[in-house]
Design brief:
single chain; alpha/beta; 8-stranded parallel beta barrel; binds 2-phosphoglycolic acid
Length: about 250
């Protein structure tokens, strides 16, 4: 494991044509077409983006994965095996928008993590506290509870993304001190509780932009970034990836 990992989370954005144009721009640029860069496209465009990425170095990610592992009567779901089949290298698990709008529980998230791992797709477990929890001083405890499922996972490579809910899509970025504190906390927790995860990568997410990427990525224990809004523009995503590429 070396170098920083930057994944662009497109969320429920793009259309066939705009996704194609964005990927074409990323592929044409050596700052983005390299190892350690990924894009999480909407499920409906994964196969299209996968075909376009063939021969390039950008990794494909999904924004979610089903908690159900076997094929069958689960209307609307996308299994880990399907994601692997179209070439997904990563799957986001438990993004705060999914926790909030789709009531995803730790139990469901553990199943998602296991399904992804069994299919050879690296899960990216997203954790983060709300503003209320931060201001109430419970933020470390909240993250501890969200990380708890990792103790149930015997082995396998996974990534954690720390995304304070109050910093997502709001333009409010956590301070470098807040980021450093939480990333150290997550790494220590994983070291003590999640066996083989000494090598775990912890990404930061929440209003990462061209202007703040370098400082955030240079912060201790920050192994990369999960980028929402700024990943929809090839120009700003490129600056973020370039900042990541300069750092080890
Ligand atoms: P943002 O989103 O960069 O738009 O704040 C980050 C995320 O939700 O992954």
């Amino acid at each position: 494991m070396s170098g920083k990992l930057v994944i662009g989370n497109w969320k429920m954005n793009t259309r066939s044509e705009s996704a194609q144009a964005l990927v074409a721009a990323l592929l044409a640029d050596p700052a983005t077409n390299r190892d350690g860069v990924g894009v999480a496209a909407p499920a409906v465009y994964l196969a299209q983006v996968a075909r376009q990425l063939e021969g390039g170095r950008i990794a494909l990610a999904s924004q979610d994965v089903s908690r159900y592992d076997a094929d069958g009567a689960f209307t609307g779901e996308t299994s880990a095996a399907m994601l692997a089949d179209v070439g997904c290298r990563y799957a986001l698990v438990g993004h705060s928008e999914r926790r909030q709008y789709f009531a995803e529980s730790n139990e469901a998230l553990l199943r998602k993590m296991r399904n992804a791992l069994a299919a050879g797709v690296t899960p990216v477990l997203c954790v983060g506290e709300t503003l209320e929890q931060r201001e109430g001083g419970q933020y470390l405890e909240v993250i501890r509870q969200q990380l708890a499922i990792l103790a149930e996972i015997a082995d396998g490579e996974y990534v954690v993304a720390y995304e304070p809910v109050w910093a997502i899509g709001t333009g409010k970025v956590a301070s470098l001190e807040q980021i450093a504190e939480m990333h150290a906390f997550i790494k220590n927790w994983c070291l003590q509780n999640a066996g083989s995860s000494a090598n775990i990568r912890v990404l930061y997410g929440g209003s990462v932009k061209a202007e703040n990427a370098e400082a955030i990525l240079a912060t201790k224990n920050v192994d990369g970034a999960l980028v929402g809004g700024a990943s929809l523009s090839a120009d700003s995503f490129r600056v973020i990836c370039q900042a990541a590429g300069k750092l080890i």
